[in-house]
Design a protein that fits this description.
The structure holds two protein chains of two kinds. By secondary structure, chain A is of the alpha/beta class. In chain A, 28% of the residues lie in helices and 25% in strands. Chain A is built from nine helices and 15 strands. Chain B is built from six helices and 14 strands. In chain B, helix 2 packs across helix 5 and helix 3 packs across helix 4. Classes of the chains: A alpha/beta, B alpha/beta. The interface between A and B is large, with 95 and 76 residues. Strand 7 of chain A pairs antiparallel with strand 13 of chain B. Bound molecules: flavin-adenine dinucleotide (FAD) and adenosine monophosphate. Flavin-adenine dinucleotide (FAD) sits at the interface of chains A and B.
Chain lengths: 323, 252
């Protein structure tokens, strides 16, 4: 049996979990075994999960598990795993998925292979291809373990419902947790105002060293506003204090996949590239035709962004004004 | 407050990654070295906490002798002591790394006193296992939370903040504790000349640790297939706006 941990943030399942369910379903059918899922906390979304071919859904509940608690989730899942002895436990490689599975690996004393992309089961060792450097490098690794623990790289595959959905049966499970397991838990939540964020914006107008100063971002703000998008930036910009880190796109910033990414004065270093390579269309504005961002973009304007960006803004306003 | 920060020496590739002959490592002949921005911020956070509590910061790395360079960088921005667990520079799996670090911490604590706070990056820049800090916390029997973007430290407790899609979550851990942090928690300072000079004088403590080994063994590295892309050059602003209209990003 293959077990999938369904991670959620209290209100909703993390969308990429459905990619992990698809991945685990294929793994299970390849091994001619069942797909089970585990859910911690209040009543799970059984109906939607059933569409993904889950035979049974183990509902982990406990009086003190009213909000996210990484070690307690790991401990509870480890007890369930010990009871079910699945061949593998899969979670999506989100912050929460990686964190809980790291706890499970520590508790069970087994390796945990984070951010896998492909898995080839074998009698002894399994062969795995996983993500390094945020996606700019791959690693082939072998895994020998009593239970194979792993997380799936987000967006490595597309989510797909099962051909024939199954009526998932609900199996309650109540773990025994001691105080030490519950020390690390969410004690308060602060919600900020809604609105589109860098991670969800349809258009990102992003600026790098080439912008030159905080004020240099004003034309990029204007363009983003006209296109219903937001401003992003590179790490050079955040290190210079021109923009907050929450605007930083890349391996150690936010990963985006908008319809359009406009890269102004950004060279396209791999650590930036992995944060925006999934954009549907990439337009680079750069003085250097050889810059990696230019050579990898779909479209490019070769010129000084201080001239090009205001010119684009003016052209949009002209065409709008002219109607 | 005594703070320990763990950092990992990684190459700093620019435009693309070139592999070594045996494809078991990156060809670093033309590259400089660094630590993950998460870890740079962990060092900065440790120094700020030590400044606020007249405490001390020890920086530790498991790596080849050349990794002293990364220890010196941390010393130059305010760390006080440095520890190297020497290896031959080969790739260590997360279980081996965590058990060596936990052993080294136990030894340091028995000789020089406990660390109230041990700081890690959320994930290492190259292998990205998201787990060494959590495994070390389990071995030490201390609470841990990952991905932290804000720390308020008092004598016996830390309050931690972590970003969520809709705002942030708050945790409170009694000390001693382990925390893994993300870039953005602060803006690291640049080293001063004085800092660099002091850094040269500090003697790096070496702690020998055996490699535990685990069921996870790296075989080789591979560069992902490069999708060949044609870049269409747009001559002027009106060509750009034609594209924006075509993409329906701006109203016709
Ligand atoms: C472990 C690690 C993690 C990292 N994480 C991130 C990350 O999350 N995000 C990130 O962005 N970086 C990250 N980096 C840093 C990354 O390696 C690059 O250093 C950084 O992305 C470069 O930023 P940049 O393109 O703005 O600057 P540069 O590389 O200096 O490029 C500036 C570009 O602007 C062009 N330019 C200059 N002036 C103009 C002008 N007037 N008009 C038009 N074009 C102009 C130049 O031709 C050049 O191409 C990380 C590095 C490491 C080692
Ligand atoms: N070789 C190492 N030496 C010191 N610290 C390390 C080492 N490897 C990992 N770490 C620490 O553990 C964190 C998470 O690493 P990882 O589990 O590989 O993603 C890193 O950000 C570092 O803080």
């Amino acid at each position: 049996m293959i077990l999938v941990l369904v991670t959620h943030d209290g209100s909703a399942v993390e969308e990429t979990v459905f990619q992990a369910l698809t991945f685990a379903r294929d793994l299970a059918s390849g091994l001619d075994t069942d797909l089970h899922a585990a859910w911690v906390g209040e009543t799970p979304d059984v109906e939607r999960l059933g569409l993904y071919g889950i035979a049974s859904l183990h509902h982990i509940s406990h009086g003190d598990l009213d909000d996210y608690a990484p070690q307690a989730w790991g401990e509870a899942l480890s007890q369930l795993v010990t009871g079910l002895s699945p061949e593998a436990v899969v979670a999506i490689g989100s912050d929460r998925g990686n964190e809980v599975m790291a706890h499970v690996g520590a508790i069970l004393g087994e390796p945990m292979v984070a951010n896998v992309r492909e898995v080839t089961p074998g009698d002894g060792a399994w062969e795995i291809t996983r993500t390094r450097w945020g996606g700019s490098l791959l690693e082939e690794t072998t895994l020998e373990a009593g239970v194979k623990l792993m997380t799936l790289t987000e967006h490595a595959i597309e989510a797909a419902a099962a051909a024939t959905p199954i009526e998932a049966s609900m199996v309650p499970f109540s773990p025994d947790l001691d105080d030490a397991d519950l020390v690390a838990k969410v004690v308060d939540r602060v919600t900020t105002s809604g609105g589109i964020t860098l991670a969800t914006a349809p258009v990102v107008v992003s600026g790098g060293r080439g912008v030159g100063s905080p004020e240099g971002f004003e034309p990029l703000e204007d363009l983003a506003a006209l296109l219903g998008g937001v401003v992003g930036c590179s790490r050079v910009v955040t290190n210079n204090g021109w923009r907050p880190h929450s605007d930083q796109v890349g391996q150690t910033g936010t990963v985006v996949a908008p319809d359009l990414y406009i890269a102004c004065g950004i060279s396209g270093a791999i650590q930036h590239w992995v944060g925006m390579m999934a954009s549907k269309t990439i337009l680079a504005i750069n003085t250097d035709a050889e810059a990696p961002m230019v050579t990898k973009a779909d479209y490019a304007v070769l010129g000084d962004l201080k001239d090009v960006v205001p010119a684009i803004v003016a052209e949009i306003e002209k065409r709008r004004g002219g109607d | 407050m005594r703070v320990l920060v763990c950092v990992k020496r990684v190459p700093a590739p620019g435009a693309r990654i070139v592999l070594s002959e045996d494809a078991r490592s990156i060809d670093t002949s033309l590259l400089s070295f660094a630590v993950s921005p998460h870890e740079e911020c962990a060092v900065e956070e440790g120094v700020r906490i030590a400044e606020a509590t007249t405490g001390s910061v020890t920086v530790l790395t498991l790596g080849p002798p050349e990794a002293e360079e990364q220890l010196r960088s941390a010393l130059a921005v305010g760390a006080h002591e440095a520890v190297l667990i020497p290896t031959e520079g080969e790739d260590w799996d997360p279980i081996s790394t965590a058990s060596a670090i936990a052993d080294a911490i136990a030894g340091l604590e028995s000789s020089d006193g406990g660390f109230d706070l041990v700081l890690f990056g959320n994930e290492s820049a190259d292998s990205g296992g998201y787990q060494v800090g959590i495994r070390v916390a389990h071995t030490l029997g201390r609470p841990v939370v990952a991905g932290i973007k804000g720390i308020d430290a008092s004598d016996d407790e830390v309050e931690l903040r972590r970003d969520t899609t809709t705002g942030s979550e708050v945790y409170r851990l009694p000390l001693p504790a382990v925390v893994t942090v993300k870039e953005g928690i602060n803006l690291p300072r640049y080293p001063t000349l004085k800092g660099r000079l002091n850094a040269k004088k500090v003697e790096v403590k070496r702690v020998i640790e055996a490699r535990a080994g685990s069921g996870q063994t790296m075989v080789r590295l591979k560069t992902p297939a490069q999708e060949v892309s044609e870049t269409t050059i747009l001559e002027d602003a009106s060509a750009v706006v034609d594209l924006l209209e075509e993409l329906q990003v701006v109203g016709r």
